[in-house]
Write a structure and sequence with these properties.
With about 110 residues, the chain is mainly α. It is built from six helices and no strands. It is globular and about 40 Å long. The termini are far apart.
Length: about 110
């Protein structure tokens, strides 16, 4: 069920750092069902780019504990210190994409 979805196209994994990062990301991506998101959170990423409840385009950890486990799974060399946030990004043969919240809001308009 989840494997065909995750392997159906390119996947980008992110580790977001910041105050209440899990909650803020989940608010930005919106409800899991993209169809419902279009009605109750029309400017959310899932409302704009998702297809339905399965192919909703985005994932966010349910809480901080889940996020820590998933970071360890996908990025085993990254060690999180709860008192010190470390930026592990490297810019070498890659593309950096920064999405500002106002750009998402303007796209929805």
């Amino acid at each position: 069920f989840i494997k065909p979805y995750l392997t159906s196209g390119p996947v980008v994994l992110l580790t977001l750092l910041g105050n209440k990062a899990v909650e803020r990301w989940r608010e930005l991506i919106g409800p899991e069902n993209s169809l419902g998101a279009r009605e109750i959170a029309s400017s959310s990423l899932r409302a704009i780019f998702g297809k339905d409840a399965i192919f909703n385009g985005f994932y966010g950890s349910s809480d901080l504990s889940a996020a820590e486990k998933q970071i360890e799974l996908f990025f085993p060399t990254v060690k999180a210190d709860k008192n010190h946030l470390t930026n592990t990004a490297t810019m070498k043969n890659c593309t950096c994409c920064i999405i500002k919240p106002h750009a998402v809001q303007e796209r929805a308009s």
